[in-house]
Amino acid sequence: MKKALAAAAVLAAGLVALPASAETTLRITLQLPIKSHLGQNLLAFEKEVEEKSGGDLQVEIYPSAQLYKDKEVPQAVGSGAIEMGTASITRFAGTIPAVDIFYVPFMFNSEEMVRKAVAHDSPIRSAIDKEILGTGTRVLWWQAYGGAIMLSKGGPLKTPDDVKGKKVRVFGKTLGEFVSAVGGSPVLTSGSEQYVAYQRGTVDAGMTGVSGVKSRKLWQVMDTITVTNHADVEFLVLINEDVWQGLSEEQRQIIAAAARKVEAELRDKMAKIEADAYEAAKAEGMGVYTPTAAEIDAWRAASAPVIEQYKEAAGDLGAKLVTEAEKLRN
Prior knowledge:
Layout: H1 2-12, E1 25-29, H2 37-52, E2 58-62, H3 73-79, E3 84-88, H4 111-118, H5 123-133, E4 137-152, E5 167-170, H6 173-181, E6 185-188, H7 194-200, E7 205-209, H8 210-215, E8 224-226, E9 232-240, H9 241-246, H10 249-283, E10 287-289, H11 293-303, H12 305-327
Parallel strand pairs: 1-2, 1-3, 5-6, 5-7, 8-10
Antiparallel strand pairs: 3-9, 4-7, 4-8, 4-9
């Protein structure tokens, strides 16, 4: 972190910050705080890579959107402005609409189903990684972020009726269509800007992963969590393809092995991370409401048209991914 902060200071001074060994230094931009579970996951990657390479590979992490906001990461990495970055998968939806399969409401209704969908040999993950590679960016690993929950003030959002007429923070096009379908007005807001949006009343409600409530201290500006788990939130750790190809075979093997290791570790910890985040929110005075089966059915019914909107936007690939997702229910 010290080396990253020093380099960031150079950037802030308007100077060109070039690593001492550009060919072996990998800078990673992250929109979340370093203390978030995504930040800790990147620190584990940094340690593994630097140890296994004997210091030949150096990793620098720039958290809290110091260099790029979430929405800017795909272009920054793809253009080579920075070697690596972490971004929500939906940030590729503009060029690859099919990636939003994970944000189609209630498409993935269990952790087991999510694990199958994001497995390395999954037809869903393989197809998405291949499409993203076509943008000049390689996916190194997927970072689990958990289920999407709703945030509000003054009580839970038990059913779609509670959303009608409200402005709702969203972080993707398909999630915006979900909000529209249930009667709200979506407001696309990056993760690093949502605290201020809640604080200023720019939005009335919002959605995020529960771990984000903890890492961003959202209990200071919202008072209730509704556990809808209507989407699976996934982040991707990306590397510029030219940078990847410029590494030696040994370096690529070290990076790939480290990526696999930290991906599996995070996925296995996710249930506890979410449980701890819920407890932290309660300890700070937030209410946590779990909808009844009937209330979830009402959410499902109201948002059902979104799947057809997704298929229309995502074309043949989207239809294929929906078919593959449905197979996982068997």
